[in-house]
TrEMBL record:
Organism: Caldanaerobacter subterraneus
Stored Pfam families: DUF429
The protein, known as: DUF429 domain-containing protein
């Protein structure tokens, strides 16, 4: 199966987005400033896009997302700390963290982490993009790199992705996996992209490739039911459990 530019793995990066894809036997990561730019550049070929950003958002009638709770249980401590609670949509209009905190407490009855506050511009950007381009919902799925990695490998990462050991742990596994796609990872460091941005985008790309090749069990949280937000957007986290994992390590 030709996978060239049919799948994207996207992770937020400073000043934009880290976007991983495959072409001509190479898996690589590019930098885009806007998610809309990614869409217009790749949309003619796209089959699946996995992005590490909350899409469906909690609201007054559903104050938490079941997908986040299930993902935390799936990962266990300490990787569960990578799953944060996203804000309600009303927080987009806040002028500062103090105001955002007050709005979130009023609507959802709980506070807002600094981690969530720091990526609100990206959450808002994707939310507005989907509203403007509703056809993108067919291709665009929320995923999460730590959940996706456990789905691929069958176990959580032992080290933090920001540590040298964590980077090596993830990349060694990904190199083997991509070789099975007849694809070599090009690790060029792009200005503005950190190594953890690059590895997260590649994890999501690998997950998406397995999904379109139907070589794993496609899963999502919540497991046994569907949830949508007030705009009808799914509140779910997509991943793949790789059923043939042992085969890729048999030389």
């Amino acid at each position: 199966m030709n996978i060239d530019e049919r799948v994207l793995g996207i992770d937020g990066a400073k000043g934009g987005w880290a976007v991983a894809t495959c072409k001509n036997g190479k898996a690589f990561v590019q930098f885009f400033k806007k998610i809309e730019d990614v869409w217009y550049f790749y949309r003619d070929k796209l089959e699946l896009v996995l992005i590490d950003i909350p899409i469906g958002l909690p609201h007054s009638e559903k104050r938490y997302r079941s997908c986040d709770e299930e993902a935390r249980k799936f990962l266990g401590y300490p990787r569960s700390s990578s799953i944060f609670s996203p804000p309600c949509r009303e927080v987009f209009e806040a002028r500062d963290y103090k105001e955002a905190l007050a709005i979130n407490k009023k609507i959802l009855g709980k506070g807002l982490s600094k981690q969530a506050w720091n990526i609100i511009p990206k959450i808002k950007e994707v939310d507005e993009f989907i509203i403007k381009n509703p056809e993108a919902v067919k291709f665009l799925k929320e995923s999460q790199p730590e959940v996706a990695f456990k789905g691929l490998k069958g176990e959580v990462a032992k080290f933090s992705k920001r540590d040298e050991e964590g980077y090596k742990e993830r990349m060694e596994f990904l190199r083997i996996l991509f070789r099975k796609f007849d694809c070599e990872i090009v690790e060029d460091k792009i200005k503005g992209l950190r190594r953890d941005d690059i590895v997260d985008a590649l994890i999501l790309l690998a997950t998406g490739i397995l999904a379109i090749k139907k070589e794993g069990n496609i899963c999502s949280f919540p497991t046994n039911f569907k949830e949508k937000d007030l705009l009808g957007l799914p509140m779910e986290i997509f991943f793949v459990k790789f059923s043939r994992l042992n085969e890729i390590f048999i030389e």
